[in-house]
Write the structure tokens for this entry.
Amino acid sequence: METLLRLPSPEIYAKAAALYRAGELVAFPTETVYGLGANALDAEAVGRIFAAKGRPNDNPLIVHIAHRDQLDPLVRLPALATALMDAFWPGPLTLIMPRTDLVPDAVTAGLDTVAVRMPSHPIARAMLEACRLPIAAPSANRSGRPSPTTAAHVLEDMNGLIPLIIDGGPCEVGLESTVLDITQERPCILRPGGVTREMLEAVIGPVEVAGSVLRPLREGEVARSPGMRYRHYAPKGEITLVRGGEADVIRALRLCWEAAEAAGENSCVLCFEEHAAALAGVRCHSLGTLSQPESIANRLFDVLRQLDTEGMTRVYSEVMPADGIGLAVMNRLGRAAAFRTVEAADVIARRGAAPV
Ligand code: TXA
Ligand code: MG
């Protein structure tokens, strides 16, 4: 199949609508990451998403809508929903709600809940308006790859597999939406994202964060969000997070990199802009500046993709505080590293030993 990469226009929206109605897939930009869409009411079309992504079919999808009146046929609204929609829609907040029978099992992986969000990106909105359908869309990457934040990333993963990619340039947030479960007594963040815990709590009071956001699932632990079971955002090289005091971390990053290079690994360090000068001579990728945490969220997936392009085998990364948008950054970085973490002081103590 030939994959067309096209800039947005009324003709392209009409083409996308026709493809959706014919059961085909279209990739489109949102404010978070690019999505790979299909008509959410067409189980066969939804099946094509799983095939194109190589996604396990027990991992449910998010349904995207342009207007609130599209919700009525899909969900039974929990009490908290209206306040959350008033505050954060359109925007990077996905709500898990009890679903109706209209939603195919293929979308929800058989769960009795469905994830819904109203994106704010003008191209996503124009496309949703043009097709007048609820669109099921996961991130438009092959399963296990970092989510795409540019049309070029989508093409890298989906070339030949889908008929159309709408090119809307780089995504603003750069990390996927916050997934909030509001079906239980206490609302719970299943996946942190652009709408932070602090922002949610300002509107609805206390919000839990699922345990597996900052650590691997424990033996026998049931994932409240099926996506948590999988090793997402996994570059081919091995990433290790280095934590500790600032001076120790900088010293340890240099030691780790030198030891890896000496061992014949192709290695680099992920550091914040603030520490680049102190790491002169070390092969570094900048994660952005701590003074603008949004910039870190925004470039993370692009950096992770570059590691693969450059054939990195060992990567050592700084960490940031897990509050505000930092919770989402540390969730994605942690999972990319399979939560492998070392203490900088330990690295310094066994200086000269084999690479960690
Ligand atoms: O920003 C985003 O959310 C992007 C753009 C395209 O909208 N989409 C996205 O979709 O990231 P995806 O499929 O990559 O991630 C959806 C997440 C998965 O972790 C999935 O397990 C969870 O939402 N999810 C979907 N339906 C669910 C449900 N009914 N209950 C619990 N978790 C659910
Ligand atoms: Mg995804």
The mean pLDDT is 95.
